[in-house]
Specification:
Layout lengths: L3 E5 L2 E5 L7 E5 L4 E2 L3 H10 L2 E4 L5 E6 L5 E5 L7 H10 L4 E5 L1
Antiparallel strand pairs: 1-2, 3-4, 3-8, 5-6, 6-7
């Protein structure tokens, strides 16, 4: 992940470089770029992930056989590389992040 750490109002967050290449999440088996949460939810459910509906501000997925939880912003436009890498780490060999 590239970017700049910004400290504001006692909170530190990573701001991705606006000039850097755009990242995309790719389902490796089909070589399909994930373009919406509907597509992502379909791919995750085929891997055993279940949707949680507890938090109205987040899309959350849980896999019964693990303690992992994937939390994503409800708006796909706010889906960033840190969310993509979270999915990749929790689903090795099924997803990868690529430069566009």
């Amino acid at each position: 992940m590239s970017g700049v750490w910004v400290f504001k109002n006692n909170v530190v967050r990573l701001v991705e470089n606006p000039g850097s290449e755009r990242k995309v999440l790719v389902h490796t088996a089909s070589n399909e770029v994930i373009t919406s949460y509907a597509v992502l939810e379909h791919k995750l459910s085929s891997l055993g992930w279940e949707r949680y509906y507890d938090d109205p501000d987040l899309l959350q997925f849980h896999k019964r056989s693990t303690v992992h939880l994937i939390s994503l912003p409800r708006d796909f436009n706010k889906f960033r590389s840190m969310h993509m890498y979270d999915i990749v780490v929790k689903n090795k060999n099924y997803f990868e992040v690529r430069d566009m």
